[in-house]
Design goal:
By secondary structure, the chain is α+β, with helices and mostly antiparallel strands. Strand 1 and strand 2 form a beta hairpin. It is elongated. 45% of the residues are buried.
């Protein structure tokens, strides 16, 4: 016979009465108390359950820490790789080897994290019970956030556990539902504050005294040791309240209500609220256990520190796929390009500013593997494998549909645009002409209503179009993230950026594809609209392009009918020495030349601008036009581009294409007008000893033919070469552009 007597601390004694003597046996049970704010419930666990709960939380947080650690190492290696010179082969190879290793670590860490959460998909196995909000089944993975009453060495201790690990036999003590206030939670109060606009607003705050009061009312229902623990560690509520209340002013958006729902719990865990209490990879090298040096920590903070805890929101600038961008690849038609193959059109990067909240922010942290530090984030799709070139680890054939989504790894990259969650940002491109350290220029900005307008007619992963006086660029999530990314978003190029940013990007893409039309990225109609842009801008300004909108081709046609407009284009070409057409497709240059070689009575007799001569010219015809034609070709890169230009001697791009040699002969015939050498005889009294003076006008026709012979057959590096997309355009040598009248004198029948 025995009698069990429980003590305050959860231990108990047993009095054994089977013999005349008694023996006291002490069995510790290490009781634990946890508070679940969302359901406003106090949990009491005995030794075994508390131990299992701690192990569960540690396991989840270590998986998260491993992912964070791998991302930090990848970021450091990538930054180093991008600073290495091409000649540093050994260092480059070493870093690429280390990068591959770290990508493997990342892939393994994300795989283990996914496996651990695989049973908690929103539609399947979230358990029913008082600790799970009914909406959890619809909107979030079931991660439960608990506050340990004892706290921890670093302050408030967060315990995270998968919701299916919550046991039904755990003792539950819900706060008194009859005292629920109008704001939803019994421990919240409304406070006034002055916003940046100087106006007074209100928002919620945790009231620790009110919470303690609510918990005190539970004491009659608690066991002795539970009530004692509650009293001994009541200071945890002040710490928790201060951290939450202090985080609200740092929220990226003004918020009036605190968030404790399932999505908020999940997001706080993803950001590392639990990792902070275990082993913080921003402070500790989790592979060696050593604390990181101060130098390593400079400029870095934990993701947890950037989170507005109470609102469960954060703002981050996301580099997709990472700071180095993604190479855009395009299949080359073997019928047009000998050998076919793949051309590297250039490198794009997506810099998006997101307000991360709820399942959007959580999926970025779990599924897509986002490294978050301060206000910066960089995305790395799982299964990421770097290429052989430092910093360029991913190539995408943008003409193919995005990869099929792997079940369990779906991520709507632009879900924020669909749910109005403040997605903004830019599409960047690696500009070969930019000599800055980063070399990236803004190409386009996120369009208004981007998600709603995107995705129409996009068979591949990238599409260019002309829409209401803007260039619209539509991008699939797969291009940014790789396998697992879905959805699409639109970017707009408008105003001066159309000529300053988009046209250079388009022309470099054409150069890199050896001047085949990129009809898998755009319709032929839109391509020819793009060809009209530099012509209208050259005759007027970019405003005429924008105002023309969908009728840009009609505007160009009308402009050719204006002699003043044609003269302005010619004078602009001469004034800029051809730079105004530097970033113009071959069809644009062909149209400009077609307008310059077209003559009528007005051109012959009443257009002095067309016949203006340089100081060294004299006695020729259409001198200004001839110089403009030659300068139009100043930035021709290859014989293939030259031939493309001569094929398209039509003033309206797309309305005519002929044999390039026949087109060249038309140009040569115009350049030869008035170029016949003329000789005069003079009396000795005028030029003593001279018998004849010969004036040989400018040799523009000869220059044109010499220029063609000078050009390489194709761009100076074959399409698809790794260096191609980083080389600037090459200028024609000045000697092929310059022409002057030659004065030849003959002395006594012989040259002097």
């Amino acid at each position: 016979m025995s009698e069990r007597i429980e003590k305050w601390d959860g231990s108990y004694t047993t009095m054994t009465k089977s013999v005349p003597t008694t023996k006291e046996v002490y069995v510790p049970s290490y009781p634990r108390l946890y508070f679940h704010p969302d359901s406003e419930t106090l949990l009491a666990l005995d030794q075994d359950d508390a131990h299992a709960l701690e192990q569960e939380s540690n396991m989840l947080n270590m998986l998260l820490a491993a992912r964070m650690d791998a991302l930090q190492r990848i970021e450091e290696l990538t930054n180093t790789c991008t600073t290495l010179r091409w000649s540093q082969h050994l260092e480059r190879d070493q870093h690429q080897y280390l990068l591959r290793k770290e990508y493997q670590h990342l892939d393994e860490a994300c795989g283990m994290l996914r496996t651990a959460l695989s049973a908690l998909t929103p539609a399947t196995s979230l358990p029913n019970g008082a600790l799970v909000d009914e909406d959890s089944e619809k909107n979030a993975i079931g991660i439960m956030e608990l506050i340990e009453i004892r706290g921890g060495k670093r302050g408030v201790k967060y315990i995270y556990v998968r919701s299916d690990k919550i046991k039904h036999h755990w003792r539950r003590y819900p706060l008194n539902s009859s005292e629920q206030n109008g704001d939803g939670k019994r421990f919240l109060k409304t406070v006034a504050y002055t916003a940046e606009d100087g106006q007074t607003h209100t928002r919620q705050a945790i009231d620790p005294e009110q919470l303690i009061s609510q918990l005190t009312k539970l004491k009659p229902s608690l066991k002795t040791w539970e009530a004692t623990l509650l009293d001994r560690h009541s200071g945890v509520w002040g710490q928790w309240a201060q951290a939450f209340n202090d985080s609200l002013p740092h929220s990226p958006n003004p918020v009036s209500r605190m968030a404790f729902d399932a999505q908020a719990q999940l997001l706080r865990w993803v950001y590392g609220a639990g990792v902070k209490c275990l082993i913080n990879p921003f402070e500790i090298d989790i592979r060696t256990g050593k604390r990181k040096a101060v130098a390593e920590l400079s400029g870095k903070t934990s993701a947890y520190a950037n989170l507005a805890l109470a609102a469960a929101t954060s703002s981050a600038k996301l580099y997709l796929p990472d700071r180095s961008g993604v190479k855009i690849c395009y299949p080359l038609d073997p019928a047009k390009i000998p050998g076919g193959g793949t051309g590297i059109l250039g490198t794009l990067r997506f810099d998006l500013e997101l307000t991360l909240a709820g399942s959007i922010g959580a999926s970025l942290g779990i599924e897509a593997s986002v490294s978050i530090a301060t206000d910066r984030a960089r995305g790395l799709p799982v299964k990421a494998v770097p290429g052989d070139i430092p910093g360029f680890w991913r190539e995408v054939d943008v003409t193919k549909p995005e990869n099929e989504i792997i079940p369990g790894s779906e991520l709507s990259v632009f879900a924020g645009a669909e749910t109005s969650a403040n997605v903004s940002g830019t599409l960047m491109w690696l500009n070969p002409d930019d000599e800055t350290t980063d070399n990236y220029n803004i190409l386009a900005k996120v369009a208004v209503g981007a998600a709603a307008q995107a995705g129409v007619g996009v068979s591949g992963q990238l599409k260019f179009s002309w829409l209401n006086g803007k260039v619209r660029i539509e991008v699939s999530g797969g291009l940014c993230w790789g396998t697992g990314g879905k959805g699409s978003i639109s970017f707009d190029v408008d105003g001066p950026a159309i000529m300053n940013d988009f046209m250079p990007c388009l022309v470099y893409m054409l150069r890199n594809a050896d001047y085949i039309q990129l009809m898998k990225l755009m319709t032929s109609e839109d391509y020819y609209r793009f060809c009209a842009i530099p012509l209208l801008a050259g005759m007027y300004s970019i405003n005429r392009v924008i105002d023309a909108g969908e009728k840009i081709t009609d505007a160009l046609r009308q402009s050719w009918e204006s002699k003043e407009a044609r003269v302005r284009l010619m004078e602009n070409i001469l004034h800029t020495a051809g730079d105004c057409l530097k970033f113009a497709p071959p069809e644009s240059k062909g149209a400009a030349i077609a307008s310059l070689i077209e003559t009528n009575i007005w051109d012959e007799l009443a257009s002095p601008a067309s016949h203006s001569e340089t100081p060294c010219e004299g006695g020729t015809a259409f001198s200004a036009r001839k110089r403009a034609i030659i300068n139009t070709l100043r930035w021709v890169q290859s014989r293939r581009e030259y031939e493309n230009i001569m094929q398209h001697l039509s003033k309206i791009p797309g309305e005519g294409k002929g044999d390039w040699q026949a087109g060249e002969q038309r140009v040569i015939a115009f350049l030869a007008k008035g170029e016949t050498p003329r000789s005069w005889g003079y009396a000795g009294s005028l030029l003593p000893g001279a018998q004849n003076i010969t004036i040989k006008p400018g040799h523009y026709a000869e220059n044109l033919q010499a220029l063609y012979r000078y050009l390489p057959q194709a761009p100076n590096i074959p399409p698809g070469h790794i260096y191609m997309s980083t080389l600037p355009l090459r200028e024609i040598l000045p000697s092929y552009l310059y022409s002057c009248t030659q004065l030849i004198t003959t002395m006594h029948g012989k040259p002097p």
